[in-house]
Amino acid sequence: MRKIQLFLAFVLLPMMAAAQTVKSPNGNVALTFTLSDNGRPTYEMTYKGRAVVKPSHLGLELAKDRHASKGKDETDLMDGFKITDTRVSSFDETWKPVWGETATIRNHYNELEVDLNQPSSDRNIIIRFRVYNDGMGLRYEFPQQKALNYFLIKEEHTQFAMAGDHTAWWLPGDYDTQEQETQQSKLSEIRARFNKAVNWDNSSVAVFSPTGVQTSLQMKSSDGLYINIHEAACVNYATMHLNLDDKNMVFESWLTPDATGLKGCMQTPCTTPWRTVMVSDDARDMLSSNLILNLNEPCKIEDTSWIHPTKYCGVWWEMIVGKSTWNYTDEYPSVKLDLIDWTKAKPNGRHAANTAKVKQYIDFAAANGLQQVLVEGWNVGWEDWANMWKADVFDFVTPYPDFDIKYLNDYAHSKGVKLMMHHETSSSVTNYERHLPAAFALMNKYGYDAVKGGYVGDIIPRGDHHFSQAMNDHYLYVVKEAAKHHVMVNAHEATRPTGLCRTYPNLIGNESARGTEYEAFGGSRPDHTVVLPFTRLQGGPMDYTPGILETQLKTWSDNPNYVHTTLVGQLALYVTMYSPLQMVADLPENYAKYMDAFQFIKDVACDWDDSRYLEAEPGDYITVARKAKGTDNWFIGGKCDENGHKSVVKLDFLDKGKKYDCTIYADAKDASFDKNPKSYTITKKTVKRGDVLKLAEAPGGGFAVSLMAR
Ligand code: NOJ
Ligand code: CA
């Protein structure tokens, strides 16, 4: 009897510590932590009393360290914990982003810190929860201690038990790409739909489970709750996927492995990224949420004066469409770069990045108020860039003989324009890091202040994945090195963003999803751009490259494909797809055909003092009004799926007593993305606060409105 009493007092009772609940500042979100009976950390989450995450376990499985543990099995950080302390605190601060959707952002949460000890290993970990009005973040923290110095992660087992068979907007799990089409299905249908999702463009190379999905994952419950799972501040850690137990509707974290299969190499003190669950009964709150940014650390760059939002055009779309080439010659020089005499190479006559053409693009940018001109294919190596042995293809400093780097930069600067650098690494990552100092020195020498990066193809060192811990370290290393050179970074094919642009605002863009380029490769569904703001954009802006007004590519090239929006739908994207970096992606000669519609692209801002999401439903429509930074001008964008949409926009956000010159770019009555994309109307009128605009969006279309204060 006494033995049982002692067991209860010293072993079981501390483990079964009373549940701790912390609520969001407005009380709508509640988070409860308990240790289950075997000392397993467990949490649950509700919104206005409704279950969002049912009781779910937390923990990490560790891998045996071949060298250090002398064959001894590693103790997992999964169970057998006791609570040593808990702390509840509150935080409320308003901060100013260097660029963003609003001039200020409020970071307001209540926090629960749970200190845990695992007696069997004498290890201490902390689980920290931050509860916001629109969701919560949790992370594991590993303080420095004798019993936990270095450790290897076999798998993180963070569960998210869903309360029902929700509708989900999901991408198939993949360690290397997120350039697939989003699938919309019930959670229970993911398994059956998975192969179709993966095979859509055949790009998936490392699928791990038929119920594995990527984040940010947007869901909607049958009773109207919008739930989003993602991560924030993924630093020195592998990108997280979610694997669904589709009998019980429980998601569990599934980290990206490295080439050896390990998922994390850790050294204390360290933390995991935040695991985030956003929730609301209003879809607009998903889009206006700043939860991911708030969970990232404040800006670490002291002088940010050189970081600036940018509209840019570029020598790009004509290569993507197939009319011209990145490479200078069609001869295949499979010899090392420095052995080639480029002045003797035979030009193919289709090399786009030549001095005369780039000059035309600079003139086009200068004439239309665009700040930069991207030039791809300026540097030697494109003849051989996709070979599978690509050890060291690009040096990032040697221009092709027909690209006069000094003259073009001088010419651009004389017109108030900058060239934008391009570094396609073809995923030869170690070599890129070796070339980086010289590459940035060249940029500084000629006055480039932004670089578009790229990671096409398999990672070298071989076997690693685009979303592994080491690759995530690499992308951030490039951003930090770039900051030292006052260079802004926009990397394509890199891992999906997790809000790090708050800490490093020179990270002005990423691709990390299916961009406009796919319209030239076969197309993306019309609902694609009314899903992305709910999913991919949660972690940071996307270089989506909108603005293709000549949507039917066959009118100017041999490419039979067409863009799956109306012309006006392309205008709307400048407002609905928030980014401080916006491409004006079509060719100058195509814009010349639609100068009246092009006016909106010239006028629209890409940095904002305020943003109001007016209407939203994932996969159906998004309407947003934004106030241009430092002005009284507003821009409104509406975008819809293949079904069209009718919007009623009440202008109650305008300043009282002011008059605005309003220009409405709308789909004409007979417009549609597939049959009649270029049928549009432009209407001008004067409006004031309280007026109402009724706007009809065509199938695959949208609308764009500019409101210039008088
Ligand atoms: C893929 C990128 O998404 C695209 O924008 C770029 O032009 C090519 N890679 C070549 O770097
Ligand atoms: Ca891409």
UniProtKB/TrEMBL annotation:
<dbReference type="InterPro" id="IPR013785">
    <property type="entry name" value="Aldolase_TIM"/>
</dbReference>
<dbReference type="InterPro" id="IPR014718">
    <property type="entry name" value="GH-type_carb-bd"/>
</dbReference>
<feature type="domain" description="Glycosyl-hydrolase 97 catalytic">
    <location>
        <begin position="316"/>
        <end position="513"/>
    </location>
</feature>
<comment type="subunit">
    <text>Monomer.</text>
</comment>
<protein>
    <recommendedName>
        <fullName>Alpha-glucosidase</fullName>
    </recommendedName>
</protein>
<dbReference type="InterPro" id="IPR017853">
    <property type="entry name" value="GH"/>
</dbReference>
<feature type="domain" description="Glycosyl-hydrolase 97 C-terminal oligomerisation">
    <location>
        <begin position="607"/>
        <end position="707"/>
    </location>
</feature>
<dbReference type="InterPro" id="IPR029486">
    <property type="entry name" value="GH97_N"/>
</dbReference>
<feature type="signal peptide">
    <location>
        <begin position="1"/>
        <end position="19"/>
    </location>
</feature>
<dbReference type="Pfam" id="PF14508">
    <property type="entry name" value="GH97_N"/>
</dbReference>
<keyword id="KW-0106">Calcium</keyword>
<dbReference type="InterPro" id="IPR029483">
    <property type="entry name" value="GH97_C"/>
</dbReference>
<dbReference type="InterPro" id="IPR052720">
    <property type="entry name" value="Glycosyl_hydrolase_97"/>
</dbReference>
<dbReference type="GO" id="GO:0030246">
    <property type="term" value="F:carbohydrate binding"/>
</dbReference>
<dbReference type="Pfam" id="PF14509">
    <property type="entry name" value="GH97_C"/>
</dbReference>
<dbReference type="InterPro" id="IPR019563">
    <property type="entry name" value="GH97_catalytic"/>
</dbReference>
<keyword id="KW-0732">Signal</keyword>
<dbReference type="Pfam" id="PF10566">
    <property type="entry name" value="Glyco_hydro_97"/>
</dbReference>
<feature type="domain" description="Glycosyl-hydrolase 97 N-terminal">
    <location>
        <begin position="22"/>
        <end position="298"/>
    </location>
</feature>
